[in-house]
């Protein structure tokens, strides 16, 4: 399952410590998958009351930390240091406390278990991508049900780092990018072009393309414009941080076709005709996380916009 390191302009925990969270994610996910399978095969359902008593949710954890510092009259708190320290201490248990072995429906087989488990992991990823222990972004609820977002996360390996339509600051102005998938070997900028099943998208250099749906026609915004803007942003940020890695441009239509006499220079057109080949070539990539990959992700995170507020100022404890 790919790691969601950034979504829109929400504050991500990966911005606080990319190296810690990128390694913790795989370890925690594997630990809880083993626990879920143990429950499924052996019927070892945890005592929920005992689990909730022994494991601390984020809000209670913050409350305890807040009380501790007040009690000892410590005024200055390095939030970032405390946040990472608390996550290192509580992270795996906190993640485990999210009812990972008590699903809303009983899994009938291993495949059912995988589906339910991945949904739980997705919900955890959304929390990591929209909040920290001390801060919170006002995330649009639609992203918690975004099919395209779930597609990228649930389809690819843990070593893929996903930025989903991030907002970058360019000369202090916010600029929204397309999907950015940072793999161990390259960075893939992706613009999704999807309509009704079997739609044909006619390529044009103008601002609009034509979508053919049977005998009907529809104007759609030229996706190459946003894709080129995203690639230029990524290239510029990589250059400013002396990062050298391949950048690939992809126009992706899982359910339609592209009609173009000739593909534009350096853009891969992926539609129903070659989608499976492209999809499985990425899924088969077994390379581990690379230092250059983390450097690249860190550079992009540093220049992305984050809007958030302090939990202590906006939540009652």
Report on the architecture of this protein.
The chain is an alpha/beta fold. The protein contains 11 helices and 14 strands. It has a 6-stranded mixed β-sheet, with helices on both faces. Strands 10-9-8-12 form a 4-stranded mixed β-sheet, with no helix packed on it. It has a two-stranded antiparallel ribbon with strand order 2-14. Helix 2 (18-42) packs antiparallel against helix 6 (110-130). The longest helix is centred in the first third of the chain and has 25 residues, at 18-42. The protein starts with a strand and ends with a helix.
User: Which descriptor suits the 3D outline?
Assistant: globular
Secondary structural class: alpha/beta
Mean pLDDT: 83
Number of β-strand runs: 14
List its traits.
single chain; alpha/beta; six-stranded mixed β-sheet; four-stranded mixed β-sheet; 14 strands
Short description:
The chain is of the alpha/beta class. Helix content is about 45%, strand content about 20%. It has a six-stranded mixed beta sheet with strand order 1-3-6-7-11-13, with helices on both faces. Strands 10-9-8-12 form a four-stranded mixed beta sheet, with no helix packed on it.
Strand and helix map with partners:
Elements: E1 3-7, H1 13-16, H2 18-42, H3 48-54, H4 58-71, H5 79-96, H6 110-130, E2 135-136, H7 147-155, E3 161-164, E4 167-170, E5 173-176, E6 179-182, E7 187-192, E8 200-202, E9 208-213, E10 216-221, H8 223-240, E11 247-252, E12 257-259, E13 267-270, H9 275-283, H10 291-302, E14 309-310, H11 311-314
Parallel strand pairs: 1-3, 7-11, 8-12, 11-13
Antiparallel strand pairs: 2-14, 3-6, 4-5, 6-7, 8-9, 9-10
Helix pairs in contact: 2-5, 2-6
């Amino acid at each position: 399952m790919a790691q969601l390191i950034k979504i829109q302009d929400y504050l991500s925990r990966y911005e606080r410590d990319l190296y810690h969270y990128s390694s913790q994610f795989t370890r925690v996910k594997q630990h809880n998958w083993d626990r879920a399978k143990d429950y499924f095969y052996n019927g070892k359902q945890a005592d929920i009351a005992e689990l909730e008593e022994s494991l601390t949710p984020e809000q209670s954890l913050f409350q305890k930390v807040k009380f501790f510092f007040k009690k000892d009259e410590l005024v200055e708190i390095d939030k970032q240091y405390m946040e990472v320290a608390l996550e290192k201490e509580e992270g795996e248990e906190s993640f485990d406390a999210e009812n990972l072995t008590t699903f809303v429906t009983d899994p009938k087989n291993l495949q059912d278990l995988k589906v339910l488990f991945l949904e739980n992991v997705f919900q955890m990823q959304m929390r990591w991508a929209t909040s920290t222990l001390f801060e919170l972004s006002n995330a649009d609820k639609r992203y918690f049900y975004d099919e395209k977002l779930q597609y990228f996360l649930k389809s690819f390996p843990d070593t893929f780092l996903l930025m989903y339509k991030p907002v970058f600051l360019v000369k202090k102005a916010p600029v929204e990018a397309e999907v950015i998938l940072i793999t161990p070997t390259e960075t893939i900028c992706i613009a999704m072009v999807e309509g009704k099943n079997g739609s044909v998208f006619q390529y044009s250099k103008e601002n609009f393309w034509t979508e053919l749906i049977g005998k009907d026609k529809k104007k759609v915004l030229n996706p190459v414009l946003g894709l080129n803007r995203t690639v230029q942003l990524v290239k510029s940020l990589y250059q400013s941080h002396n990062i050298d890695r391949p950048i690939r441009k992809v126009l992706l239509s899982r359910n339609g076709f592209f009609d173009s006499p000739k593909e534009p220079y350096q853009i891969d057109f992926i539609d129903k005709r070659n989608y499976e080949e492209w999809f499985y070539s990425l899924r088969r990539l077994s390379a581990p996380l690379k230092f250059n990959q983390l450097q690249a992700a860190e550079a992009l995170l540093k220049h992305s916009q984050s809007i958030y507020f302090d939990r202590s100022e906006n939540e009652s404890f």
